């Protein structure tokens, strides 16, 4: 029995050694940095598009509203707080908030309602310390671009969507050739936060 256990252990060890180095840390995105750089250099991809993809992947970009309302409920406010935290990491970028409605009501009324919803989201973000010059809420699709194609009331269609729109006017290409600096800034911040968490954990253990 003991020999069998030892043999099994060696088999597992050999199998583990046959795996490619770095397989645990590579989640399929290892080549993204090189790909992004190549696409930027050839004009296929802009830094605004890169940030836009990251924003959509890392933060909920959409909030929803009650029928015929532009009031932000608790869920919407929580999402906007997460958006604000992300936006603050990139002071070079500008953002646009699009307002939407469901299909109930006239086109003109829904156009106005969609605008009020976008304005409400932008106003909340500015109260979190984000410059109004970096936020735009001038576009409203009203009911013309439903998420769910239905003539009835549907909360999923009553929404605003936040997107990266470009860079601040005074430095529209600030990230051009300097994307690594932004990544480094995030790296330092994450390391600082990790150090703080570790210190707290160590204190808890000592107590």
Key descriptive features of the protein:
single chain; 207 residues; alpha/beta; 60s Ribosomal Protein L30, Chain: A; 5-stranded mixed β-sheet; 6 helices; 12% strand; disordered C terminus
* CATH architectural type of the domain at 34-176: 2-Layer Sandwich
Report the order of strands and helices: HHHEHEHEEEH
In terms of DSSP E residues, the strand content is 5-15%
Q: Identify the CATH class of the domain at 34-176.
A: Alpha Beta
How far apart are the termini? 45 Å
Unreliable segments (pLDDT under 50, ≥5 consecutive)? 4-19, 22-31, 171-176, 200-207
The count of β-strands is 5
Write down the overall geometry: elongated
| Tally of individual helices | 6
Major β-sheet annotation: 5 strands, mixed
Mean model confidence by pLDDT? 76
Give the C-alpha Rg. Answer: 24 Å
Helix content range: 40-55%
Q: Kindly identify the CATH topology of the domain at 34-176.
A: 60s Ribosomal Protein L30, Chain: A
Q: Give the structural class.
A: alpha/beta
What is the name of the CATH superfamily of the domain at 34-176?
A: OmpA-like domain
Can you offer a commentary on this structure?
- This protein has a domain at 34-176: 2-Layer Sandwich (60s Ribosomal Protein L30, Chain: A), CATH 3.30.1330.
- Helices cover 49% and strands 12% of the residues.
- It is built from six helices and five strands.
- Strands 1, 2, 3, 4 and 5 form a five-stranded mixed sheet that branches.
- The longest helix has 28 residues, at 179-206.
- The chain is elongated.
């Amino acid at each position: 029995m003991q020999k069998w256990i030892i043999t099994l252990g060696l088999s597992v060890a050999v199998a583990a050694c046959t795996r490619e180095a770095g397989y645990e840390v590579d989640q399929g995105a290892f080549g993204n940095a090189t790909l992004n750089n190549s696409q930027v250099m050839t004009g296929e991809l802009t830094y605004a598009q890169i940030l836009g993809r990251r924003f959509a992947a890392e933060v909920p970009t959409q909030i929803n509203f009650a029928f015929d309302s532009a009031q932000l409920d608790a869920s919407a406010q929580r999402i906007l707080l997460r958006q604000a935290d992300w936006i603050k990491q990139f002071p070079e970028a500008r953002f646009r908030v699009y307002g939407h409605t469901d299909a109930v009501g006239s086109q003109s009324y829904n156009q106005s309602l969609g605008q009020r919803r976008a304005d409400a989201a932008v106003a909340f973000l500015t109260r979190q310390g984000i410059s109004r010059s970096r936020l735009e809420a001038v576009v409203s699709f009203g009911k013309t671009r439903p998420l769910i194609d239905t003539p009835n009331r549907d909360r999923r269609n009553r929404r605003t969507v936040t997107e990266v729109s470009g860079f601040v006017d005074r430095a529209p290409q600030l990230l051009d050739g300097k994307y690594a600096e932004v990544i480094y800034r995030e790296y330092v911040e994450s390391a600082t936060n990790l150090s703080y968490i570790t210190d707290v954990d160590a204190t808890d253990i000592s107590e």
